Amino acid sequence: MRNTPKAILLMGPTASGKTGLALELARRFPVEIVSVDSALVYRDMDIGSAKPSTGEMAACPHHLIDIITPLQSYSAAQFHADANRLINDISARGKLPLLVGGTMLYYKALLEGLSDLPQADAALRAELDVQAAEQGWPAMHARLATLDPITAQRLNPNDAQRIHRALEVCLLSGRPMSALIARGKEAAAAFDFLPLALVPAERGWLHQRIAQRFGIMLEQGFLDEVSAIRAKYPALTLDLPSMRCVGYRQAWEHQDGLYGRDEFIERGVAATRQLAKRQLTWTRSLDVIPVNAQQAGLQDALCRATEDFLAGQAPSPTLRFAGAF
Asked: Which helix (DSSP H) or strand (DSSP E) does residue 270 occupy?
């Protein structure tokens, strides 16, 4: 067996049951949990982020929870560095890292590395827009083919958004975007992962759980939590990343009188459903093992897969969800 550290990834859309399954794995294996959630990093944002309770976090060590204030930001690059460090540290303690959450960009950074792509440049984007209006996107695609033939080959000549970004990256960096992406992938974590992704066999099942959980959050005092956060952090605005977390923006606007309670609930549930949809779309783009979140005996199935993984064996083919999601 190689000495490469091993880690379990347990991802999935919001309300799919990740926390409960993670705690069950913690009861059966010597794990430490690493949160892969862009909302759980914020202190004081407990109810609306469905943060594990104090008792749940006492069941085993948890990491990357409550590490910044709602006034601060936390990037995929920071997660990449923190997760790599934690995986090494946890493995060195003889424990199994269990990475749990639904922020798929973080998983992508961990699995595929980070590309050092330049930020958007408003002036250059405007210039490219003018050129595209004059020449057409097929001509812009041909220009891209001279600068970055690898990227151009995989893009449709009329894919305006991606051609635009690829040209921008080439012109700003002086290098093909494909080369920058390849360099980023070389920085992908050198660990053995068991990448498990919970997916619902029925979308309605997930929608029902989302609505139920939103109702429970309200009963637990979610609106009071938002009021307390606004009072504690006077500099907080809706433009900050923390307030872009689903539920918080809708609660803020409801408190400001933009709409009533019923519409607030409707908007909050709808935003959470849209988040789940985006999470499932991300899941399809990653090299993971989709697992039916609704299947009977799911806890035992994941524990068997973990045992096989630790023994150096491939998980049973029956674990993989065969349906569409």
From this structure: helix 261-285
Tokens (6 digits) for 76: 């995929």
What is the predicted pLDDT for the residue at 167? 95
CA dist list (Å): 189 to 114, 116, 117, 310: 10, 16, 19, 18
- Which residue matches tokens 């709602």? 70
Supply angle C-alpha 282, 104, 71, rounded to 5: 135
Exposed/middle/buried for 290, CB within 10 Å: 0-12, 13-18, 19+?
A: buried
pLDDT single digits (tens) 205-235: 999 999 999 999 999 999 999 999 999 999 9
Residue 231 structure tokens:
């009072």
Beta partners for residue 32, in sequence order:
97
Predicted local distance difference test score (pLDDT) of residue 185: 60
Q: Going edge to edge, which strands form the sheet with 96-101?
A: 62-63, 31-35, 96-101, 6-11, 192-199, 289-292
CB 28 within 8 A of CB 303: yes
Half-sphere exposure of residue 257: CA atoms within 13 angstroms, side-chain side: 0
- Which pLDDT value is given to residue 1? 37
Cα-trace Rg, the chain:
22
Residue spans of the chain under pLDDT 50: 1-2
b vs e for 173-198, b when ≥16 Cβ sit within 10 Å of the residue's Cβ?
Answer: eeebbbbbbeebeeebbebebbbbbb
Rounded Cα distance, 64 and 41, in Å: 6
Among residues 207, 41, 176, 22, the alpha carbon closest in space to that of 51 is found at 41
Q: Which one-letter DSSP state was computed for residue 157?
A: T
Can you read off the two tokens belonging to residue 59? 């069941």
